[in-house]
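ESCALATION

Customer reports they have been waiting on this structure for their group meeting. Please prioritize. Original submission:
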Amino acid sequence: MPGIENTTPGADFLKSLGFPTLDVHESFTHFDFTTPGRRVLVIGPMGSGKTEFAARIWRDASVARKKSEKVRCMTSTGSLDRRRIFFIRSEIDGGRFTEYPDDALAYRSGYIRCGDNIARIKDSFGFEEVLRDNPDVGTYIIDEASFFDERLAYVARNYSLEKGCMFVFPTLILNFRREFFNSTARLMLDIATDVIPLTAYCEHPDCMASAFYTYRYYQIGDKECPALYFDPLIVVGGDRIKNSGLEPNYAARCEKHHFLPGKEYTFFTLKPLGEAATRGDVEPLKRELKALHEKPESSLLAENLKQRYGALPDAEIYMNAMTPGLIAEKAISYLFCEQNLLGESLVVHLVSDLGLDTAYLEKVLAENRHPVSFSQPYLL
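Update from on-call: job pushed to the front of the queue and completed.
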């Protein structure tokens, strides 16, 4: 209730020394390696310091390993010791931090070298191999766990319960659409014992609010072009700012400055067109894809954006979403990879008939675990 003095122990202590009543906040504490079986989610938008938090855990472990035999007994379960840490990254994340050594636990402001205790894996089966090969490791840091298949969540849970091992997951839970990243992200929340949320300043130049969301945008000259809602879910790239219509950039943003055009279009227009195509009525979808590819300003998407955002103060930014191009390719990717509405043969036929960018599509579809080769034609 208003007017009641802060009665936390820290505030009482400061008051006893003659200080005025203050709000006392909990400081960062050294990491707990004594509790077995923890599954710790470290969540926040891109740029909030999730991997840097993991590096602090690594540094704490190096201090804790210098402690006595008595401490080793406190941090061990059987042969594994939770002060021994292994760092894991996804193979598809190889475009980031290429300027650092191969054994680096790298983050935006530095890195720590892990020696032999680091691996890149493809999926949960590779994860199990790492667990089998390192029976004395007691803590695993799995960076961007949402990039992996959902089976990984239960492999970690079962291993932690059986062995007393600890897992730390610095990962995105929400994607650039402000939705659960995928089913793996949902399961991570399901199996977690601890959640540590991190935030950042909103990276909009006129804002100092806390950012909870990851914003995806394309930078083309001096234009900020927000990604459309149906932009491919996973687009792999480096951490450097790109001036490109092909590779997006990311920023931490607050709700006010997180622009996400095209969501209504996706569910009111694009998805129904995809559903009609699955029933054999392909022509309406084909007409819209043709417009998106050849004359975007004549598309149903352009009409929707004008109606939805035309009167808003930020209308220009929303309309910039049409600038990067490859909109038809992104629409096909969304309907194929995420909605499972288009069969592979139909995708190949549409791409060939409309003359779409096959190199871009092959890269994006592979990154989103739906690889397609456009070198061989399919018969409908």
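Sent to customer with the following note: Residues 197 and 256 are 20 Å apart (CA to CA).
Escalation resolved.
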